[in-house]
Specification:
With 58 residues, the protein is mainly alpha-helical. It is 66% helix and 0% strand.
Length: 58
């Protein structure tokens, strides 16, 4: 499962937040999705860690 799907499934952010972050990536932002969402204050570092752990457990 993609990290954006996990973040939205767990209720850490909205799908629109993921779309906004992906748009930034497509327009040249080289940061990882999680880094962008943290910078946008849409998720916390803790939220990202929980999502990454869930992704690894798949």
């Amino acid at each position: 499962m993609l990290i954006g799907e996990i973040l939205t499934e767990k209720g850490f952010c909205q799908e629109s937040d993921i779309i906004g972050a992906l748009d930034l990536q497509q327009n040249g932002d080289n940061r990882l999705l999680g880094q962008i969402l943290i910078a946008m204050e849409k998720i916390s570092e803790g939220d990202l860690l929980v999502a990454l752990e869930a992704q690894l457990d798949e």
